[in-house]
Amino acid sequence: MKRLFALFALIGLVGLTACSSLSQTDLRKAGYATIQAYNATAPLALAYARQPSADPTIKASIKTASADAMKVITPLGTDLQSSNPLTALEVSAATAAVAALQAKIATEASK
């Protein structure tokens, strides 16, 4: 009976480990995609800021959104490079910050 219990415990542990690594894989993919999205968006923000006719209020709003994104993107990038475990909160915060930056730029582009 003890051997059977030990076997089931081992199977359960292996199963949890496999689920955990799958989750980390998904989080890592999402983390890399978020950083790529920021890297694609940042030049647009810079291009707008360099325009002589740029609205100072919108320029400040984009600058703030970019700084906010960097606050969460930088630790995410560090964790990805160091192979540290990621959390869903960490990745979703970075994704939301990049989306906010994209929204600020899109607002200006739609004018």
Tags for this entry?
3 helices; 111 residues; mainly alpha
Structure description:
The protein has 111 residues and is mainly α. It has helices spanning 2-50, 56-81, 88-109. α1 packs antiparallel against α2, α1 packs parallel to α3 (88-109) and α2 (56-81) runs antiparallel to α3. The longest helix has 49 residues, at 2-50. The chain is elongated.
The helicity comes to over 70%
Label the overall shape. Answer: elongated
The assigned structural class equals: mainly alpha
The first-to-last residue Cα distance is 73 Å
Count up the helices. Answer: 3
Percentage of β-strand residues: under 5%
Output the helix-strand order.
HHH
Provide the gyration radius in Å: 21 Å
Mean pLDDT: 82
Give the low-confidence spans: 1-20
Based on DSSP secondary structure assignment, what is the total number of beta strands? 0
Largest sheet: none
Summary of the model, kept short:
Helices cover 87% and strands 0% of the residues.
Helix/strand layout:
Layout: H1 2-50, H2 56-81, H3 88-109
Helix pairs in contact: 1-2, 1-3, 2-3
